[in-house]
Amino acid sequence: MKAKFVIPLAIFGVLCVFLAIGLTKDPRQVPSPFIGKPAPAFTLAKLHEPEVKFSPEEMKGKVWLLNVWASWCVSCRVEHPVLNDMSRKGIVPIVGLNYKDQRADATKWLGQHGDPYLFSVWDIDGKVGIDYGVYGAPETFVIDKQGIIRHKHIGPVTPEALEKTILPLLAKLNA
Amino acid sequence: MKRLLAPLLLAAATLAWGQSTEIANPDPKVEARLKAIAHELRCLVCQNQTIADSDAPLAVDLRQQTRKMIAEGKSDDEIRAYMVERYGDFVLYKPPFNAATALLWVAPGLLVVGGLAGLALMLRRRREATAAAPAPDPARRKEIEALLAAEDEPRKG
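Structure tokens for the assembled complex are given below, as produced in the milestone run.
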């Protein structure tokens, strides 16, 4: 007789635990399959110097960030002051991946908002974006000295995410 | 009828506009395969739509990429693997069976088995309870029937 009440209560309790865990998760944060894998190779022209090409191999031996941005991307404006601040302090080299943007719009945007990038590369058709599994700019990849992707931040880099996740990771990777 | 014509034409126009204008000369064979594959792939920008349904720029790009891979003679599995490599298992509406998804796949079966077991147990208990109930002795039975009959009497009138 007692089990009749205890069993549904227990099932309800288990359900509550699962739902409570579900509430803490953001469905937009899709775990990247790239963590721990080599950054996909590409060759793209630089945004400001169309005749100069860049490949990620050139950054071997350095810990660096690859930041996906575009002039049409509203959230990119939100994170831009954070990137500018990082750049001013010289925390880490940031390479911009200008994603599906017009060259003139992109350079104008950087002129207006400041350019925190070592340089940006120009991915007009979004092909490199697809190779990096980009589905919403801004996205930021932390790449280590061996060229392995260690972390992917989806959405604007907030001061909080920087303090709690990215800076400690950079310190570890640079150690 | 005339009043209906305008909305109907409008509806037809939006249908035609859908994806057929995405490329200049769609090859029906390629488009059919694209449709089949794209219906199994999740658009990560608007997560509850497939790549076939979504008009998000990323979905358009991925349809274009799929067309290209079909033209290159890639198999459906190769195209799916290409997407999973970049966007993870999450891109598949039919996720593969692995450690992370085992519970997802097994849970419905477990629920059915558990439910049936519970039902069987309950039915057996009930049958045992009925069987265990003692049959009333004839004298007592007569008394009960008389009482029941008396109860029914007034209602008849």
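Chain B has six helices and no strands. Chain B touches chain A through 15 residues (CB under 8 Å). Further analysis is deferred to the final report.
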